[in-house]
Structure formats: structure tokens, C-alpha cells
Specification:
Layout lengths: L15 H9 L10 E8 L3 E9 L10 H5 L2 E3 L2 E5 L5 E4 L1 H14 L7 H14 L11 E10 L11 E11 L10 E6 L16 H6 L1 H9 L4 E5 L7 E4 L3 E6 L3 E4 L10 H9 L6 E4 L4 H10 L2 E8 L3 E10 L2 E4 L8 H12 L10 E3 L2
Bound molecules: 2-OXO-4-methylpentanoic acid.
Length: about 350
């Protein structure tokens, strides 16, 4: 039976004044809407008790397995308000499919894609007043699933909680689309072969935090990770995929080798690339190739991408005491690519691939 995530009989709502004052400066992930979608799973019954409830802390026993063994996965997607006031999701089925794959890798139950999409759709429907309409604003949806069984033995949990929360957001980075400096981490790895690199699980992000602190100490805002085995191949940033654009108009990104998150933005950019005169290429990228080609000018643009920040231009890579600088004033494709995707998401250009799903 498909889940329905029915709303409460008497939903509570914040006043318009509260919502509009948050819209003035929402930042990213600091404010949350009035409700959340919830469902339970246990080994006997499967998925059940799906509902929309008032936003509230999740009470877990201190022995809850997620606190100890980090058996958890999450997603991130956005709802966009179009100029006519309608509200749309971008490729929610792609997030649903990745959520299933992430859950499988973390030995969590797979929430059927249809139920994932329903949960997000119903939450956005009840929270439609919260979807901001300002420049680059949206309602960020954060579905997540965690082991909720009270048990300290190390094995897949027998009970699990699924939750979706929603947050009105503006630009992810406070500087907007300002180009960022990136620290190349050769001391720390994000993931290793056979690990959880392709899954969207909290542990991958936790592993990126110490290197990110190092990046900050070195005047950079993000980290670029190379592979753990040879420390030779470019993988991804702490929370975003990596791209380079060459002078022969190739849009190049590391191929999905099991260690890289299959980003929905990544996939969307590769798909629309030909419309901007770029040839999409997925292949292993050696760090030395990137550094050499920044030097000889045959790599003209670098950027990072993800749902949260869309595309962030990269100004420099710092590696072993040297700084490799891109002349961002000569970039011709990064911003048009970003605008192209945003135009589809905000309904300013035709959705020729059927990526958008109308909520209300
Ligand atoms: C995204 O860009 O969607 C991310 O995954 C970053 C997020 C963890 C804030």
C-alpha cells in the first residue's frame, strides 16, 4: 500500500509576519517550517504510521542506534516558486532513487521512490506559504532516515525513522556566486574504495569537517579530495561535485567510480551541456592534469556544484604550498550554465525534459 502522509486535522501555522521576516534574510538551513513528514519502519510491519505532524524535536532513547553507529542517510532537494505563484519540485524522482541506493549501502530499509516523492510533495503542499519567491530563494527539503532501535549491538537496526523537514533558504554561501578558493587535501580522505562515497550519509560529511577546518586555516573555503589509494585522482569537494571546462569546450567531471556522490545537479549539468556548446565528459581526472592545465591555460574554468549552492566558481586550488589561480574574469561558461539550470528550475525557460513536478 502506498504511503499517503496525511496532514493533521488542525494544522498549526506561523503568522505571515513571521514568514515574511524570515524571507528577508533566510540564509541556509537556519529556519524551519511548521510541519514535518514522518514515517516509521520495523522489520515486522515494514513502513507504517506515515503522517504530517507539527515540527518538533525527535525524541530518541540515548541507546538509539544512530547515535552510536551513524546508520543514517539523507537527501537534499528544493521547491521553487515560479512567477505565477505555482510551486514546483526539480527531479524529485532522482533524489528518491539515490535515497534508495544510499539506504541499501547503509543497510537501512529502502523507502519506495513513490513514497519518498509523496512525502516531499505533501509537505510542500501544506507548507506552500513558506516557499519564498525572492531571487535564488527556495524551500530546501531535507528527507532523512535513521536507525531508531534502542540497541547497542552492531547490526542493522530493526526499527527506523524517516523524517522530512523544510527550510526556506537563500544562497548557500554568504558571498553569493563569488568565486571560492579551494584547499586540496592530500593528508585526509573523504572515502575509500568499497566505502560509502556514493551514498549520501552523514558520516561522509563528518569525515570532511576536519579537513575543511584546515582549509579555513589556509584561507580557503572548501576542500577538494583526491582518492585515498593513490592520492592522485580528483574525486569531489566536501559536499559538492567537481567540474572543469577546457579550452576545447569540454565539460569534464570525474566518472562515478563508487567513491563519488552521483549529484542530481551534476547529472543535470552534463545533460544540458550541449545546449551551451559544451561536450560532457565523465572520466578519471588526475590532479596533476588539472594543475598543469591551469598553468598552461587549457583549463579555463573550474567550478563546484550541488543542490544547495547550484554552481560555485573556483578561483584557485591550493596544493602543497602552491596556489594555482584561474583567471575568473575570462570564464565564459560557468555563469551561463548556472543561469541555464536556474531558468529551468524557476520556470523562466521551457522544461523540455519533463524534470519539473508541479506541487500546487
Ligand atoms: C547539496 O549541495 O545538496 C549538498 O549536498 C550540500 C548539503 C549537504 C548542504
Amino acid at each position: 500500500m502506498p504511503l499517503t502522509f496525511d496532514p493533521p486535522n488542525q494544522p498549526k501555522y506561523s503568522g505571515d509576519d513571521v514568514i515574511t521576516s524570515i524571507w528577508q534574510d533566510p540564509g541556509f538551513g537556519s529556519y524551519f517550517t511548521d510541519h514535518m513528514a514522518v514515517a516509521d519502519w520495523d522489520r515486522q510491519v515494514g513502513w507504517h504510521n506515515d503522517r504530517i505532524v507539527d515540527y518538533a524535536p525527535v525524541a530518541l532513547d540515548p541507546a538509539g542506534a544512530v547515535y552510536h553507529y551513524a546508520q543514517e542517510v539523507f537527501e537534499g532537494l528544493k521547491a521553487y516558486r515560479h512567477a505565477d505563484g505555482s510551486i514546483w519540485l526539480f527531479r524529485p524522482e532522482a533524489n528518491a532513487a539515490r535515497f534508495e541506493r544510499s539506504a541499501h549501502r547503509l543497510a537501512l530499509p529502502e523507502l519506495p521512490a513513490e513514497d519518498f516523492v509523496t512525502s516531499v510533495h505533501r509537505l510542500v503542499e501544506i507548507e506552500r506559504r513558506w516557499v519564498p519567491g525572492g531571487e535564488e530563494q527556495s524551500l530546501y527539503l531535507r528527507p532523512f532516515m535513521m536507525a531508531s532501535e534502542n540497541f547497542l549491538g552492531v547490526r542493522p537496526a530493526q526499527s527506523v525513522l524517516y523524517v522530512v523537514i523544510a527550510s526556506p533558504v537563500g544562497a548557500y554561501f554568504t558571498g553569493g556566486v563569488a568565486p571560492v578558493d579551494i584547499w586540496v587535501s592530500t593528508e585526509y580522505s573523504r572515502v575509500a574504495n568499497g566505502g560509502t562515497g556514493a551514498a549520501k550519509c552523514g558520516g561522509n560529511y563528518a569525515a570532511s569537517l576536519l579537513p575543511q577546518e584546515l582549509a579555513h586555516e589556509n584561507g580557503c573555503s572548501q576542500v577538494l579530495f583526491v582518492d585515498a589509494a593513490e592520492r592522485r585522482w580528483v574525486e569531489e569537494l566536501g559536499g559538492m561535485n567537481f567540474f572543469m571546462i577546457t579550452t576545447d569546450n569540454q565539460l569534464v567531471t570525474p566518472n562515478l567510480n563508487g567513491n563519488i556522490l552521483p549529484g542530481v545537479t551534476r547529472d543535470s549539468l552534463l545533460t544540458v551541456a550541449p545546449e551551451l556548446g559544451l561536450t560532457p565528459v565523465e572520466r578519471p581526472i588526475e590532479l596533476s592534469e588539472v594543475l598543469t592545465r591551469i598553468g598552461d591555460g587549457s583549463v579555463r574554468e573550474l567550478f563546484a556544484c550541488g543542490t544547495a549552492a547550484v554552481i560555485t566558481p573556483i578561483r584557485s586550488l591550493k596544493h602543497e604550498e602552491r596556489e594555482y589561480i584561474i583567471d575568473v574574469d575570462k570564464a565564459t561558461h560557468t555563469i551561463p550554465l548556472r543561469e541555464h539550470l536556474l531558468d529551468i528550475q524557476y520556470g523562466r525557460s521551457a522544461d523540455t525534459r519533463g524534470w519539473m513536478r508541479r506541487v500546487c
